[in-house]
Write a structure and sequence with these properties.
The complex is a heterotetramer, with 2 copies of chain A (502 residues) and 2 copies of chain B (169 residues). Chain A is of the alpha+beta class. Chain A is 38% helix and 22% strand. Chain A has 19 helices and 22 strands. In chain A, the strands form 6 sheets. In chain A, strands 13-12-9-10-11-14-21-19 form an 8-stranded antiparallel beta sheet. In chain A, strands 3-2-1-4-5 form a 5-stranded parallel beta sheet. The radius of gyration of chain A is 24 Å and the shape is globular. Chain B is mainly beta and 169 residues long. Chain B has no helices and 16 strands. Chain B has strands at 2-7, 10-19, 22-29, 32-45, 48-53, 56-65, 68-73, 76-83, 101-104, 109-114, 121-122, 127-133, 136-141, 146-151, 158-159, 164-168. The chains are: A alpha+beta (502), B mainly beta (169). Chains in contact: A-B, A-C, A-D, B-C, C-D. At the A-B interface, helix 8, strand 16, helix 14, helix 17 and helix 18 of A face strand 1, strand 2, strand 3, strand 4 and strand 5 of B.
């Protein structure tokens, strides 16, 4: 087993990997940019190395600096987490060349699956169903118009190297195409240093269901079942579950999708952890979308239901150990749901809300798992994803999990910045969500549905809120007028003035 | 103690007395009839109050927000403004130039594109500036139709929340 | 199902019950003494009622006041938690009389099992093995001497109404008997308002293994397997596991003990949750000790391994719902270990260390469960048990759980008061513990074994600690001399003086 | 900056300079040879320092304890005293009366029994007073053989940590 491993990432996933390393008795090395000297992953690691300025292109995406750090600390392996260099074949290759083990699949497999277009070809090759679209990247706007016209609107623009909704745009009409293409490719360029975009047919009201697989270097591979990630905003997952309510009602789907996933993975002699994403339409037909050749953000729900520790398995496999389990060993118990806690304002189109958090109260009690990347006093940097933490729950049933998640979201409190915590509670109360009627357009529809949130609110809230606010100001010996002042004059100030004129 | 208060934009009147943990208070607003209440109030953690009002327990979290005090009770947030009537006179006039509309940065970030030039005529909703933060690009649109009379945004510049980027008249 | 339930307890267990009620959509009513107005259970409950002064005899043990509170709030049921009135048959009876559902067994069953001597008789009656000792309480010192002589030293004194080691004393010689008897009965009087003490043969190096059972009001009952609670200090459990390493190695024991437990429970038509405690000697013979007719402090390890929520089951059963599971449905997955975090000083005979905690850092990440009763700024009252929280972990294997528990204890930090957190890490590193060689005298032996803790410590710790301390003092602009001053003059001050004389 | 320090009772010398986050320091003690080290130090939370010393990360937690500063690193606690040599003169004389031994309350609690009377002759280790806290009774024993010359403990009284309960001479 390895003596020391470098974690080439930041935030909650770096922390989660460091925790796994500590449990395995392996020394952890963190890397950090100028913006992250005081970040939690640096505080928790055994060792740490500075790798450059805040922009990820100058730090977390710099292969040379990360390999230097690994060499300086004599790290024997590198865990890339997700995002950043995790799906960069050149990085995996550079590690291999430097004699450092890359914790993930071979660079060959990454390259083969790294481009969505190539992955599609491969899937088509073995007869796996895919969504109609271009086989290669489209740069020229004129060509894009052509393609889109023949596929028919609405279409979806996607970064070939993409993931997490970066460089992704829905386009409903030709008029919007060029602007969307420009934004998408520049976003892709920034996120993945690769601006290639391709175009595909947009499946209406699809579910996003993915299959987790894991295999060792001698070809033993199993699937750990599905995750449903249909609840998305800006094409990015925010709530994930295992099992999928649809699959729970139709167990044969797990077997079918699991086998399809393993077949596709085998075409590239895949090893270590990977995820195959599928779209599922309203007739329960599934279409292969892409393969993520790395650990998935939402891996905790699979861990909670199967009982396996994916990160520790990844490390053991990378060290050459056998997988040690067969498909028959894998069982699924109960139901897990995860929320991605972001520093953002759900009521303002999920606008990022960076800043310093003053107070953080964490949920506890039965069935809670918190993968956190923050602490009280930490300031969320503007340079990176605003993911603060992942909050997951487990319970014997999906209803139990929903009730538990509601409870723990109520206990979770982060002051000083806006978060989507309250927003999640509203979704959990939604009848459609409770019924398991999910699709990737769920949130947009939810906002239309819940335009006027009918809160049956305790009438005393208003009085108590007023009292607490008054006491807060008086105890802090600060003039209410200044504290009460607002950026722009509120309806209330106007009222106040009028009253004072009487 | 008598205070003018607004909760989520609704004006109300708060009158209260404190004696250690004990509080007596009356609150009335356009949608809440005056209610005399007695409570015990303890600040259990900085800005966090445990308030018991005739048998009900309210864990109440208060923090200074951009547009007033954010008060969280059981996961429900109210924005509260408090003002001492005697202080009303002290208010400055913070009206905006009527015809002119300001475009502020909605968040800290980096300006990646400026789509207009000073003096341009723009339609309401036309894209003006693209700000990127946390790898997400947000296009700021014109709040009204008119001429861009001011444009302080420069590509590549880092801006703070609320910074003035442009003005339309 | 109930609309509203009163929780007749405090601390972490009150919080844990309130969490269950919230998940079930049931309104929770907390009760509190003068010492607990700002306690976490009062903060978290939907409603709260003051029930008297700090001493439990004037508040949490006052049946009348608790029933008044229940009536005032229209609570339909009462959950007693553990300790306090949870095993008080009069209380259960009073609830029944007041038309309030007592969440637990019938008052008849409590009374039958409440006195250890009566329970012994019952077990003997159905041929279950018990430890030799008195069948009735002993008050008169002379009689005690007699009994002890015929049983033979060492003997154990136990509060008939007891639990949690309160009013319990090991006596090795006649000389120590009278003093021990006096202390034990006065402690028992205080803790249970019942000074009755009885005497039994002390089994050397026994394991404490208990069986969790749960049944509904129509007689359906299952066991949820065992918990090993052999790691004790002052006769009080501090580490509990499921499964027991001994039973894991000898699975037939789980069946045998489980069946014995169910047989004993059936003699009193038991329903709701209960625990039957057994001593297991070095030949794997088990002896029935006593039955706890309530929820057990260490119930979380059973929940983690079986996947059931015992508190929610208790409430559903109390509401008259059927158990809904059969013995065949019960499965055990992986391994769970719990530590009881106390405000105490392990290096000073576990002396309680009450006081205000300034800073609290909670562990997070995979496989952690924290049942907490505290928060930063909370002052541990001197009137009650110094249990701050229960920290439990789950993993696929016992080794994995030990590694995980080490990790999370490292993340857990409570400043301002002494705790046993570091002590637990030392035990987890102990070869005997890792090998699963457990017995109730483990900690005493451990201290003898680990007289000189051989820490292979980072040589830089000393330098870094000195630097941090210096910066702390300077940044707080406080004269080092005063801050460095000590209660009594340390060896160092003397050295310092000598140096200054040179 | 030059300071006399003691870590877990061992004397040492600390010399250091600070420039923002950057620190250069030398530490030497009877069991640690002088080592010149450079570090970056950030107080990430009140009393919690993230200290990086040539590539190693030390999460260091400091709090004022009864007998010095408690410094926690990776779950290991050291008790540290810091003294500025120039301040040495300021130390008062805090010796104890030689023959007399004090019995302090080891914790806050309630006195439930007093087993001796003023003037009694007691053996070393004899039980003097029983204090109860958190439902646990702790018998305080005589630190030495001698006469009880002072006895301030009264049954039923609540005492704070360190309160003087008795003196033996």
């Amino acid at each position: 087993m390895f003596r020391k491993i470098l974690v080439a990432n930041r935030g909650e996933i770096a922390v989660r990997i460091i925790r796994a390393l500590r449990e395995m008795g392996i020394i952890s090395v963190a890397v950090y940019s100028d913006a992250d000297r005081a970040a939690l992953h640096v505080r928790m690691a055994d060792e740490a190395e500075h790798i450059g300025p805040a922009p990820s292109s100058e730090s977390y995406l710099r292969i040379d600096r990360i390999l230097d750090a690994a060499a300086r600390h004599n790290a024997e392996a590198i865990h890339p987490g997700y995002g950043f260099l995790s799906e960069n074949a050149d990085f995996a290759e550079a590690c291999e060349a430097a004699g450092i083990v890359f914790i993930g699949p071979s660079s060959v497999a990454i390259r083969a699956m790294g481009s969505k277009t190539a992955a599609r070809k491969m899937a088509i090759g073995i007869g796996a169903p895919v969504v109609p679209g271009t086989e290669e990247a489209v740069v020229d706007p004129a060509r894009a118009r052509e393609v889109a016209r023949e596929i028919g609107y609405p279409v979806l623009l996607k970064a070939a190297a993409g993931g997490g909704g970066k460089g992704m745009r829905r386009v409903d009409s030709e008029a919007a195409l060029e602007g969307a293409l420009r934004d998408a490719s520049s976003e892709a360029e920034r996120a993945f240093s690769d601006s290639a975009i391709y175009i595909e047919k947009l499946v209406e009201r699809p579910r996003h269901i993915e299959i987790q697989i894991i295999g060792d270097k001698s070809g033993h591979m199993v699937h750990l079942g599905e995750r449903e990630c249909s609840i998305q905003r800006r094409h990015q997952k925010v709530i994930e579950e295992c099992p999928s309510p649809l699959v729970a009602a139709h167990p044969e789907m797990r077997t079918a999708m699991g086998e399809a996933a393993l077949r596709i993975a085998r075409t590239v002699d895949y090893y270590n952890a990977g995820t195959l994403e599928f779209l599922v339409d309203e007739h329960r037909q599934f279409y292969f979308l892409e393969m993520n050749t790395r650990l998935q953000v939402e891996h905790p729900v699979t861990e909670l239901v199967t009982g396996y520790d994916l990160v520790q398995m990844q490390i053991r496999i990378a060290a050459g150990e056998p997988l040690g389990i067969t498909q028959e060993d894998v069982t699924w118990r109960g139901s897990a749901i995860e929320c991605r806690i972001y520093a953002e304002d759900p009521n303002n189109n999920f606008m990022p809300s960076p800043g310093r958090m003053h107070h953080v109260e964490r949920p506890a009690g039965p069935g809670v798992r918190l993968d956190n990347g923050i602490y009280p006093g930490w300031e969320v940097p503007i340079e990176y994803d605003p993911l603060l933490a992942k909050l997951a729950v487990w319970s014997g049933t999906r209803d139990g999990a929903i009730a538990r998640l509601r409870r723990v979201l109520g206990e979770y409190y982060v002051s000083g910045i806006k978060t989507n915590i309250t927003f999640f509670r509203q979704i959990l109360d939604d009848a459609e969500f409770r019924a398991g009627h999910l699709h990737t357009g769920f949130i947009e529809e939810f906002f239309r549905r819940a335009a006027e949130p009918v809160e049956k609110q305790d009438p005393q809230y208003e009085a108590v809120a007023a009292l607490a606010a008054a006491v807060f100001l008086l105890d802090r010996k600060s003039a209410p007028s200044s504290n009460g002042a607002t950026a722009r004059p509120s309806r209330w100030v106007t009222q106040g003035r009028m009253e004072s004129l009487r | 103690m008598k205070l003018n208060v607004s909760v989520d934009g609704r004006a109300g009147d708060l009158e209260f007395t404190r004696d250690g943990e004990a509080c007596r208070f009356t609150y009335s607003s356009d949608r809440a009839a005056p209610q005399k209440l007695s409570a015990t109030l303890v600040e259990v953690e900085p800005g966090i109050y445990s308030i018991l009002v005739n048998g009900r327990s309210y864990e109440t979290k208060v923090v200074q927000g951009a547009d007033g005090l954010y008060v969280d009770i059981a996961g429900h947030r109210s924005v509260v403004e408090v003002r001492d009537p005697r202080a009303l006179s002290r208010t400055g006039r913070d009206g905006l130039g009527e015809g002119r509309q300001i475009v502020n940065a909605p968040m800290p970030g980096k300006i990646v594109r400026v789509l207009v030039a000073e003096g341009d005529e723009v339609e309401a909703g036309a894209g003006l500036i693209v700000v990127e933060a946390m790898k997400m690009q947000n296009e700021l649109k014109a709040p009204k139709a008119g001429r861009v009379v001011q444009l302080s945004a420069r590509v590549g510049a880092t801006v703070g929340m609320g910074d003035l980027l442009a003005a339309i008249e």
